[in-house]
Design a protein that fits this description.
This protein has helices at residues 4-23, 27-30, 41-64, 74-85, 89-108, 112-115, 132-146, 158-172, 183-190; strands at residues 118-120, 126-128, 179-180, 199-200. By secondary structure, it is mostly helical. Helix 3 crosses helix 4, helix 3 (41-64) packs parallel to helix 5 (89-108) and helix 8 (158-172) runs parallel beside helix 9 (183-190). This is Maleylpyruvate isomerase family mycothiol-dependent enzyme. InterPro entries: DinB/YfiT-like (IPR034660), Maleyloyr_isom (IPR017517), MDMPI_metal-binding (IPR024344), SCP2_sterol-bd_dom_sf (IPR036527).
Length: 213
C-alpha cells in the first residue's frame, strides 16, 4: 500500500486539478457531458463533493471510535449525486470546495494511532484509516480526467498511475487482461476510460472495459 505522505500529496494534487477545472465552468459548460456515460460534469463534481463528505465520516470514525458509515445506503449516495447535479454552478463549486477543505482539515488532525484505527468502506471492506487518503486520491485524480477539461492520464504522476494499475488489477482479479502500451494509456484502459495504442499481449486491440470508480 502507498505510504501515507505520498497518498496525501496525491490528494492535494488531484484536488488542485479538479479545483482548476470546476472554477472555469459556467452553467453551460458545467452541464456538458463528462467522460463518464450518462453523467454531466455536474454529476462528477457532485460525486466528488459527496465522496469528500463520506470519507470525512470515516475520518470521524477513526478519530472518535464512533461508527460512522460513508453513506446511509447506496440509494442515498445516488440521490445525493443527482441532487447535487441540479445545483446552480456557483453553489456546486462551493460545495466541492467546502467538502474538500473539510476533509483535508479533518485528515490533518488525525494522530498516528488514529490513522491505524479500522474503518469500513462503502464496499464493506475493513481497512485502516491510513487507506483513506488513497481512496480520495483515486477519486480526485481519475475524476479530474472525467471532467474533460484538458487533464488526461498522461498528466498524472507516474507513481500514482503505477499504484492505480496495481489496485485495479487486484480488484478486477483474474479477469484483468494483460495489455501492452504506454503506461498512462494502459492505466486509462484498465480504468475503463478513453485510451489509445493499447493492445492485448497477442497484439489484438484491447476490448473495452466498464468504468472503474
Amino acid at each position: 500500500m502507498t505510504d501515507l505522505r505520498t497518498a496525501l500529496a496525491w490528494v492535494a494534487e488531484g484536488t488542485a486539478l479538479c479545483r482548476k477545472a470546476v472554477a472555469a465552468f459556467d452553467e453551460a459548460s458545467y452541464g456538458a457531458p463528462s467522460l463518464l456515460p450518462g453523467w454531466s460534469r455536474k454529476h462528477v463534481a457532485a460525486h466528488l463533493a459527496g465522496n469528500a463528505e463520506a470519507l470525512g465520516n470515516l475520518v470521524h470514525w477513526a478519530r472518535t471510535g464512533e461508527r460512522t458509515p460513508m453513506y446511509g445506503s447506496p440509494e442515498q449516495r445516488g440521490a445525493g449525486i443527482e441532487s447535487g447535479a441540479r445545483l446552480p454552478a456557483d453553489r456546486l463549486t462551493a460545495w466541492f470546495e467546502r467538502s474538500a477543505q473539510a476533509l483535508h482539515d479533518a485528515m490533518t488532525e488525525l494522530t498516528e494511532a488514529q490513522w491505524r484505527a479500522e474503518v469500513v468502506t462503502a464496499q464493506g471492506r475493513t481497512v485502516p484509516a491510513s487507506d483513506i487518503p488513497w481512496l480520495r486520491a483515486r477519486e480526485v485524480m481519475v475524476h479530474a480526467v472525467d471532467l474533460d477539461a484538458d487533464v488526461r492520464f498522461t498528466h498524472l504522476p507516474e507513481d500514482f498511475l503505477a499504484a492505480l494499475r496495481d489496485d485495479i488489477g487486484a480488484r478486477r482479479g483474474a479477469g484483468t487482461p494483460a495489455v501492452l502500451g504506454p503506461p498512462a494509456e494502459v492505466t486509462a484502459y484498465l480504468a475503463g476510460r478513453p485510451h489509445r495504442g493499447v493492445t492485448t499481449v497477442g497484439g489484438s486491440p484491447a476490448e473495452p472495459l466498464p468504468p472503474w470508480l
